[in-house]
Known about the structure:
By secondary structure, this protein is mostly helical. Helix content is 70%, strand content 0%. The longest helix is centred in the middle third of the chain and has 20 residues, at 129-148. The model has no long low-confidence stretch (mean pLDDT 97).
Amino acid sequence: DEIGDAAKKLGDASYSFAKEVDWNNGIFLQAPGKFQPLEALKAIDKMIEMGAAADPKLLKEAAEAHHKAIGSISGPNGVTSRADWDAVNAALGRVVASVPKAKVMAVYDSVKDITDPTVPAYMKSLVNGPDAEKAYQAFLEFKDVVAKNQVTTASAPAVVPSGDKIGVAAKALSDASYPFIQDIDWLSDIYLKPLPGKTAPETLKAIDKMIVMGAKMDGNLLKAAAEAHHKAIGSIDAKGVTSAADYEAVNAALGRLVASVPKSTVMDVYNSMAGIVDSTVTNNMFSKVNPLDAMAAAKGFYTFKDVVEASQ
Length: 312
Ligand code: DGD
Ligand code: CLA
Ligand code: PID
Ligand code: PID
Ligand code: PID
Ligand code: PID
Ligand code: PID
């Protein structure tokens, strides 16, 4: 297709840049300017809306392309192969073309709002400048091809199941865990801190398992889960806590999503995460909330999971 051909040209002009970027740099975990959690949440919300509007099949293919690309990484900078670089660009170009332009620009504008204007020049200073300029020029040509193939209306909204066992169980889980949710400091910057003692390549292995799980999920249920998060963001209070009803809808949506993939795929995520999250992290989280609330939430979760497993 046209976007695939354009991605080859983009690769010709941008792969030297890709090789120069230190993909393992811890700086990418930092906020791109002043830490403003509620403004950042707005930007995430625009990405969620864009994801919810995208063609689920193309999202799945993009996740698969990223998984493949992780498999061909080489060298100290963590760069993927030239062929996989092109394939990721093509897949993302197709995702972008599957949503109306305004949804893409809403992401751009909201990310701009939280990005310090000196960030781009600083990033450029870390690589060979002319290579960055060449890559940007090629991106501008690529985007014209994407725009030419872009839809003007979003894909249909998700079909949300109702009256199912997971929905019923989600109410019990949410009643048991909402007090815990209200104890958590959602506006803290601790969630942006690197995991103690873990390197980027180690963390990437766990992310890869999540990508694999995402690629196997039912596309309609994934879209429904994204829509539920978008609605939940719309009802947050000053501390970032969503309403009880929207929290319940998120739990129901995520439970159905988990049930749409094999158990072993879920356990691969859990086991890889358990390998990088040590008990100092979970104990620290626990120390900041009411212990009884956390234990009631945990009990609720371990009951909920049996219902999910039964529908899996
Ligand atoms: C936890 C889990 C939460 C950990 C929170 C930190 C996670 C950080 C993730 C960082 C992600 C980095 C990348 C993000 C993206 C970056 C983008 C650039 O507190 C365990 C041990 C292992 C815990 C770590 C693994 C958790 C993995 C969960 C998957 C998360 C995937 C999502 C990641 C983020 C991305 C989302 C999009 O399981 O867990 C606490 C448990 O720790 C406590 O141990 C459990 C035992 O496993 C269990 O067997 C049992 O003993 C239990 O239960 C205690 O404790 C007992 C009774 O048995 C119960 O019935 C009940 O009564 C209970 O007590 C009541 O207290
Ligand atoms: Mg989420 C999970 C935040 C958008 C899909 N997400 C998580 C949690 C964290 C979070 C609270 C990971 C850390 C953890 O396990 O803590 N997400 C979060 C934010 C946003 C967001 C702030 C921003 C909008 N997510 C989002 C979107 C999607 C997802 C758009 C796609 C639709 N997210 C998604 C999935 C999962 C998460 C599939 C998870 O599996 C993971 C999670 O919650 O795992 C348990 C602990 C969790 C909480 C504090 C909240 C849940 C409370 C449960 C139901 C009860 C508590 C149990 C116990 C005390 C602790 C967990 C024990 C553990 C062994 C499971
Ligand atoms: C400017 C000035 C003009 C010239 C110009 C110009 C530039 C405009 C630009 C630009 C626009 C632009 C847009 C970009 C957009 C990037 C969007 C990224 C979206 C990320 C998402 C992430 C996610 C997910 C995902 C799916 C999940 C939800 C999420 C589901 C259902 C200024 C040059 C024209 C770069 C969507 C993918 C996992 C949140 O206009 O004179 O330069 O760049 O998890 O969804 O699961
Ligand atoms: C524009 C203007 C509007 C019209 C429009 C428009 C277009 C927007 C577009 C577009 C946005 C867009 C985004 C694209 C992004 C591509 C990103 C590619 C990333 C590839 C990576 C590969 C890799 C890896 C991997 C992980 C490793 C690092 C690597 C570590 C730690 C402008 C059309 C709406 C195409 C990251 C995955 C293995 C490098 O808005 O008027 O057209 O395209 O190895 O990580 O090692
Ligand atoms: C233990 C001991 C026993 C008792 C027990 C026990 C506990 C086991 C547990 C547990 C397992 C477990 C699993 C959990 C899994 C969470 C999985 C999260 C996945 C997140 C994903 C994120 C993403 C996306 C997304 C879609 C995108 C891709 C991504 C596309 C196409 C120890 C109690 C049985 C919690 C997939 C969603 C946006 C990467 O066994 O005695 O306690 O928890 O962006 O995909 O866009
Ligand atoms: C298990 C064991 C296997 C069988 C199995 C199994 C089950 C795994 C499961 C499961 C995993 C799972 C995960 C669930 C996670 C739910 C997470 C809910 C999060 C809700 C949030 C709501 C909110 C917001 C929001 C953003 C705001 C904060 C809030 C800020 C900055 C165990 C079946 C495979 C259900 C985060 C979105 C508005 C609070 O593996 O044997 O069954 O379920 O307002 O952010 O303000
Ligand atoms: C213990 C012992 C067992 C019993 C038990 C127990 C307790 C475990 C616990 C607990 C685990 C736990 C985990 C918590 C996790 C919270 C995760 C929150 C994530 C929030 C995010 C917010 C954000 C943003 C956002 C984007 C911004 C950055 C942020 C930028 C660029 C010990 C009870 C099971 C509480 C990700 C989205 C706005 C950070 O296990 O016997 O008690 O709690 O602002 O992006 O700025």
